[in-house]
Amino acid sequence: MTTAADIMHPGAQWIPATETLDRAAQLMRRLDVGALPVSDSNERMCGILTDRDIVVGCVAHGQDPSRMTAGDLVHGTPRWIDADAGIDEILEEMRSHQIRRLPVIENKRLVGMISEADLAHHLSESQIASFVESVYA
């Protein structure tokens, strides 16, 4: 069985909720990613920050990204998947919450991230079509 650990992009990295958005953007650039899981003071995931969040939620409102933090922009219940989860569980989690990126957790540690591109390498054409239809509908 193919698992989340098989599909994920390994080496995902947390960013603390107290980190400024300019630093978050710099880390995204260095890691060549468009999203970072955000952790609270107890190193528990409290959300995901995307490059779009920074632009739309901060810059477009005339806010200063060196003064606004990752915690200022994250909201809602963060979603994640266990490293041992199978394809069906991954797809259901992403479909039901209409999300495009999913952190992968193993032993309460962030071990990777699954993106649409990662799925595309491991799914059949019909699975990809069904996923896209449900997430973008």
What attributes does this structure have?
globular; three-stranded mixed β-sheet; alpha/beta; 7 helices; CBS-domain; single chain; 7 strands; 137 residues; four-stranded mixed β-sheet
Structure description:
The protein has 137 residues and is α/β, with parallel strands linked by helices. It has one domain: Roll (CBS-domain), CATH 3.10.580.10. Helix content is 39%, strand content 22%. The protein contains 7 helices and 7 strands; from the N terminus they run H-E-E-H-E-E-H-H-E-H-E-E-H-H. It has helices at residues 4-7, 21-31, 51-57, 70-73, 87-97, 116-120, 125-136; strands at 9-10, 15-16, 35-39, 45-50, 81-82, 101-106, 109-115. The strands form 2 sheets. It has a 4-stranded mixed sheet with strand order 1-7-6-5. A hairpin with a 5-residue loop joins strand 3 (35-39) and strand 4 (45-50). It is globular. The two termini are 29 Å apart. The mean pLDDT is 91.
